Amino acid sequence: MRVNIITLSITDLEKSTAFYQAAFGVEPASMSNDNITFFQLNGLVFSLYPKDKLAEDIGMKPEGNGIGGVTLAHNTKSEAEVDELLNKAEALGAKIIKSAQKVFWGGYSGYFSDLDGHLWEVAYNPFVEFDERDILKLST
Length: 140
Prior knowledge:
The chain has about 140 residues and is of the alpha/beta class. Helices cover about 25% and strands about 35% of the residues.
């Protein structure tokens, strides 16, 4: 299985692009335009696309809030980075859903919802490593 692009449906492309730039420190890829924003990540493309345009492309109605039982996760290298990112996201307009705390599996995490209600977990997991390119490695 391979996932190449994750696209979030959003209501305001300019605001959401600014939010993700500031919260995660990423710049839009050159392919971005007035209709869609692309961010090149470690082996994955993350995109933002207006909800009405995505619904039209799929052939569906744009009603609904975009939450379909999915959460996205951003893993950090320390508990302090979890707190830093949650604070930054909140300052940029995200809503903290669960404050960062020690969790049952031995890590530290919290959740926020972005400007369009998409849920993000920000977590420090002491049981995983990152390679030289900052790609998360699961032990086998």
